[in-house]
Amino acid sequence: MSAVVIVGAQWGDEGKGKVIDFLAQQADMVVRHQGGNNAGHTVVVHDQEFKLHLVPSGILYPNTRCVIANGVVIDPGVLLDELAYLQERGVDVSRLTISSKAHVVMPYHTQLDALNENHRGDRKLGTTLRGIGPAYMDKAARVGIRVADLLYPAELRDRLSRALEEKNRVLTRAYGAKPFSLEELYDRFLAYGQALKPYVADTSIIINEAINRGDRVLFEGAQGTMLDIDHGTYPYVTSSHPSAGGAAIGAGIGPTKIDRVYGVAKAYTTRVGDGPFPTELHDNIGDLIRERGHEYGTTTGRPRRVGWLDAVVLRHSVRINGLSGLALTRLDVLDGLPELKIATAYRDQEMTLPEFPDTAFVLRSVSPVYEVMPGWDTPIGQTRSLRDLPVNAQRYIERIEELVGVPIVLISVGRERASTIVRDELF
């Protein structure tokens, strides 16, 4: 296999960073294909923790090329700060390429994000306030600014002046906010363009050439399937496609180039932000899992909402993404719990729903149908093979496979690269 896509199978934050990092040792190229700095990966290498928001996790391997593709929206200031952060820690970032077609997150996007969210009051979406949604809105409205525009002074001035006519009118008249200065933004983003110029190229050509050569190419997205703008818990979703189909469009390759798709899921469930969450825990068990699992957002620091594993969500992800298998992360967080629960279906009044509802308002009214399984007492952090796991941990894994219909091909039992059980060749 040459091209493998890794997706989040829940609401994001599933530990994709570690899985991508683990697989990147076999990859020639890692491609980020959607989202922005509204998400992040935390990777631990030899007790060093790296927090990444835009740069693909493969950058931590010295021979892996990395691409930020056209489907990503880029805040240039954040990206340049991240590159400096990596360089200060001895990471070679010269292997990074950025798509000329990627759209740029502008300061008016972040301000509009905050103003819009505040205006929603009790109906807020729980965005990260990073301007990602407004940037994608401008992309769809065909008024966005792309990375290539930052390299051409006349084009940048023209597009920016036209954008500010509308944005400043909205900011001043609708919100009573201060307008942005054309000259200040022009000078700042022209400088950003010069700083990023060595990295910029048509990445679709580079990615396709790598696949055609037989290179091993790994595609990583941000967030998870349940935040997909079409297939997630709309409207409590992101503004792009974290599902597998988004990889082809977001990277500029044909879908026939993708050989296999793997989903990443925690051994329990979390989500950040507002929206329905059927298995959410509001008790000491939920608090315990949150603290053990360090369940705080990489980007925002917000505490994540925690719940039992939801097999209905995972079946939905298997179908939407065409998953070949699952990587199960943070199994060790469940050490010592006397019993574990898995939601096998939902109940809505007198009806049992085996599949995920297609509307968020129905999801708000459902209650999970749980299957209870015994936990295990033995710590599993040092385990490196499936047969050495406690019997109840093995049964928990087997039951998840039965409920979702695909094999679990990788199991993470700790934060380090080495704390991983591999059951199948993923490349």
Question: How would you characterize this protein structure?
Answer:
By secondary structure, this protein is an alpha/beta fold. The chain has 2 domains: 3-92 and 202-422, Adenylosuccinate Synthetase, Chain A, domain 3; 103-198, Adenylosuccinate Synthetase, subunit A, domain 2 (Orthogonal Bundle). The chain has helices at residues 16-24, 76-88, 107-120, 132-140, 153-174, 182-196, 203-213, 245-251, 284-292, 311-321, 360-363, 391-404, and strands at residues 3-8, 29-32, 41-45, 48-52, 65-68, 73-74, 96-99, 103-104, 200-201, 217-220, 260-266, 269-271, 305-307, 309-310, 325-329, 339-348, 351-353, 367-374, 408-412, 420-422. The protein has a 10-stranded mixed sheet with strand order 9-7-5-2-10-1-11-15-19-20, with helices on both faces. Strands 14, 16, 17 and 18 form a 4-stranded mixed sheet that branches. α3 crosses α4 (132-140). The longest helix has 22 residues, at 153-174. The protein starts with a strand and ends in a 5-residue tail after the last strand. 49% of the residues are buried.
Total number of helical segments? 12
Question: What is the CATH class name of the largest domain?
Answer: Alpha Beta
Largest sheet: 10 strands, mixed
Architecture of the largest domain, according to CATH?
Answer: Alpha-Beta Complex
Output the radius of gyration: 22 Å
Q: How much helical structure, as a percent, in the residues?
A: 25-40%
Give the strand order of the largest sheet, numbering strands 1, 2, ... along the chain. 9-7-5-2-10-1-11-15-19-20
Based on helices, strands and strand pairing, what is the structural class? alpha/beta
The average pLDDT value, as a whole number, equals 94
Domain module tally: 2
Strand element count: 20
CATH homology superfamily name of the largest domain? Adenylosuccinate Synthetase, subunit A, domain 3
Overall, the morphology is globular
The low-confidence parts are none
User: What proportion strand?
Assistant: 15-25%
- N- to C-terminal distance: 6 Å
CATH topology of the largest domain: Adenylosuccinate Synthetase, Chain A, domain 3
